[in-house]
Design a protein that fits this description.
Elements: E1 4-6, H1 20-27, H2 34-41, H3 45-48, H4 58-71, E2 74-79, H5 83-98, E3 104-107, H6 120-128, E4 131-137, H7 144-147, E5 156-160, E6 174-176, H8 192-206, H9 220-229, H10 236-250, H11 255-263, H12 273-290, H13 294-301, H14 305-334, H15 337-341, E7 346-349, H16 355-369, E8 373-378, E9 384-389, H17 396-401, E10 410-413, E11 417-422, H18 430-441, E12 450-452, E13 454-456, H19 463-470, E14 484-497, E15 503-509, E16 515-520, E17 537-547, E18 554-562
Parallel strand pairs: 1-12, 2-3, 2-4, 4-5, 5-6, 7-8, 13-14, 16-18
Antiparallel strand pairs: 8-9, 9-11, 10-11, 14-15, 14-17, 15-16, 17-18
Helix pairs in contact: 4-8, 5-8, 5-9, 5-13, 8-9, 9-10, 9-12, 11-13, 11-14, 12-13, 12-14, 13-14, 14-16
Length: 563
């Protein structure tokens, strides 16, 4: 099967007034007619955001929040520890601060010691601290058993979440979740911070607390970071939230964001979804992976220069520690070559490994060895948990579902990435069970060819082309970057760069003798379909981008593959 194929050209009658590139990109994004095309390009905040009261439970939630604020009750925000949950929590912190309401506390569980979701101990602690209303953000929908008992403790709870309600809805004051079965909200794929923002919109529609009309838009930098980091589809309302989120982020007054951008040599006024997804969000997530969320929360919420500076230093420190631990785990697993070589499914674990880091390790090994990888460790509650990643050719859910029923306590995810927990007794036979299931059931996935949006020449790589492509941003899930094929182009030079030579640079020559640079981050010649060599010609698969790194503006290509 061919590895890449050119997308189908739209019918001639489809948006005939537009150039072929725009027609193709709109057609394959499901845009039906001229009116939808205009709305796609001309994103409008007021027109394109949905009424928050279309979310089931919104009226009850808003009424209870306003009652608590009018009576001066202590409100607790219970957030998740990832970038999405952090941003959602800080949305509420900003709202209460601007509303002049200070009887609020924030609780984010320790990822390793407490795990995901709401616990009885956490609720008891909040009650002892005087809270009477708890608002969960980016969590709670799976904690019906715990939350159903909150009323007996004298706590009212409002759940705001965006995950699937697999165990039924908690019996609480209100549940705001676009994925609940009786919810008719048009956007089922809001991020956790997106849901928090809609609730805040709902509250402000009833009472402004002296906050100027429209001032809540300044929260959209947080919503944008969350929506990008949580990999929800960037279409419809999410595209609007992210587009405006990036606009706000580029002029955000948050000193933590300003200082982090300077530390990372990012141009804040030109910040992109890639900068958020590959530079900012990983640092926020590193905090919880390594155990201390304080610096990440402070970075987003403080307006104190010294606190922001310390938070940036702290995040850089834990992010470097995270990189070091992941690299160490990769080396440790590689030292036992039989684990990697002798089995179709790689399985390894250690009770001393932290489950929060194992997805990163598994992904690295799956890519390098082209095998499904399952890694396990033990959390603070002594539960054996793990992560799994596929090289792309194996359906992990089907594989786990093909094992003996007693193999896993729980598992979930999707075809190519997942998580699981097992009994301590079962972990010793996990490798055998998975390899037997792999051999017996055949759970391979036929990968579809990669899609190419257009054939271009290197002479086409110009600022006008970039501007045309950029109209389709922000890019992400279900709105991918346009991919181009440059056929039979000359590789003039090539090199690796970075501290560990982990990045690849290819320099091509256009028809006029000019140079076009192409970059592949965390990419080596070994990982490409065809190994590039200087002085030879090849077909380049790439996207077009503009870099502002270090204050230098550069139009370049981002390597997808060389074939």
């Amino acid at each position: 099967m061919e590895k890449y194929r050119l997308r189908k050209i739209p019918p001639k009658k489809y948006l005939p007034e537009l150039p072929d590139l725009e027609r193709t990109l709109l057609y394959h994004r499901g845009v039906k007619d001229e009116e939808e095309a205009e709305r796609f390009f001309d994103v409008c905040y007021e027109r394109d955001l949905h009424d928050p009261f279309l979310l089931a439970g919104m009226d009850k939630a808003v009424s209870r929040i306003l009652k608590a604020m009018n009576k001066g009750e202590k409100i607790a925000i219970f957030g998740d520890f990832d970038a999405d949950g952090l941003c959602a929590s800080v949305c509420w912190k900003d709202f209460f601060s601007r509303a002049g309401y200070d009887n609020v506390t924030f609780y984010i569980p320790h990822r390793h010691d407490e795990g995901f979701g709401v616990s009885e101990d956490a609720l008891s602690g909040l009650k002892e601290d005087g809270a009477t209303l708890v608002i969960t953000v980016d969590c709670g929908i799976a904690d019906a058993k715990v939350l159903n008992g909150a009323k007996k403790q004298g706590l009212d709870v409002i759940v705001t979440d965006h995950h699937e309600p697999i165990n039924g809805l908690p019996s609480v004051v209100a549940v705001i979740d676009p994925k609940r079965g009786d919810c008719s909200y048009p956007n089922r794929n809001l991020s956790g911070a997106g849901v928090a923002f809609k609730v805040i919109q709902g509250v402000l529609s009833r009472k402004r607390f002296g906050i100027p009309e429209g001032h809540e838009k300044w929260l959209l930098d947080l919503v944008g970071i969350a929506t990008i980091s949580d990999s929800v589809p960037l279409i419809g309302e999410n595209r609007v939230l992210t587009r405006y989120g990036l606009l706000v982020l580029r002029k955000s007054p948050r000193v933590g964001i300003m200082k982090l951008c300077r530390k990372l040599n990012l141009s804040q006024r030109n910040i992109t979804e890639d900068d958020v997804g590959f530079m900012i969000a990983p640092r926020l997530n590193a905090a919880s992976r390594m155990g201390d969320i304080k610096d990440a929360f402070t970075l987003l919420s403080t307006f104190d220069e010294a606190e922001a500076e310390e938070a940036v230093r702290g995040l850089e420190r834990v992010n470097n520690e995270r990189k070091g631990v992941v690299a160490s785990l990769v080396r440790e697993i590689k030292s036992n070559s039989s684990v990697l070589v002798d089995h179709d499914v790689v399985v390894a674990g250690n009770p001393n490994w932290r489950p929060s880091l194992l997805g990163l390790v598994a992904n690295s090994l799956a890519q390098e060895y082209s095998k499904p990888v399952f890694l396990w460790g033990r959390d603070g509650s002594q539960v054996i948990k793990g992560s799994c990643r596929s090289c792309g050719g194996v359906d992990l859910l089907a594989l786990m579902g093909s094992t003996e029923e007693s193999t896993f306590d729980q598992y979930g995810g999707h075809q190519f990435a997942g998580g699981f927990s097992v009994h301590f007794e079962s972990v010793h036979t996990l490798r055998e069970e998975l390899n037997v299931a792999y051999a017996k059931n055949g759970v391979s996935v036929t990968e579809a060819p990669g899609e190419i949006d257009a054939m271009l020449s290197l002479d086409d790589v110009t600022n006008p082309l970039y501007e045309r492509v950029e109209r389709f941003s922000p890019f992400g899930v279900e709105n991918p970057k346009p991919v181009f094929k440059f056929k039979n182009v000359l590789i003039k030079r090539m090199r690796t760069f970075g501290k560990k030579s982990e990045h690849l640079e290819l320099v091509f020559e256009d028809k006029k003798g000019g140079e076009v640079r192409a970059i592949g981050f965390f990419m080596t010649a070994k990982g490409l379909d065809r190994k590039p060599e200087e002085g030879t010609r090849a077909d380049l698969i790439a996207t077009v981008e503009k870099s502002y790194f270090g204050g230098r503006v550069e139009l370049r290509l981002r390597i997808v593959d060389v074939v």
